[in-house]
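Technical note accompanying the year-one report. For the benefit of new consortium partners, we illustrate the data format agreed upon in the data management plan: each record pairs a sequence with a structure-token string. No post-processing was applied to the example shown here.
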Amino acid sequence: QVQLVESGGGSVQAGGSLRLSCVASGRTFTTWDMGWFRQAPGKERELVARITGSSSTTYYSDSVKGRFTISSDNAKNTVYLEMNSLKPEDTAVYYCAAGRTVIETTWYYWGQGTQVTVSS
């Protein structure tokens, strides 16, 4: 059974940092695209960062560019999201996902989410 399990969420003051982890089990995702999404109350889920399995190319949404860093450790089947200079608007449930890209990316597997709360 494939599972993605996030951890590392919590409450932090604005300007602080958190590091989220996503551990995959049940299969190897070395060649898969891995992404971090977030969903705030009343808002749609949005992709904030992704890393390709093939070349480790990264992508960031404009809202987090320069503050968040996505990385992967294939030996540990783990993807990380380092979040710095956090803002109250970063408050959301953060999900990791694994997907395949042909023309567009289809996200096949999702974690259960971890809450990040940033207070001003």
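Partners are asked to follow this layout when depositing records. DSSP finds no helices and eleven strands in the chain.
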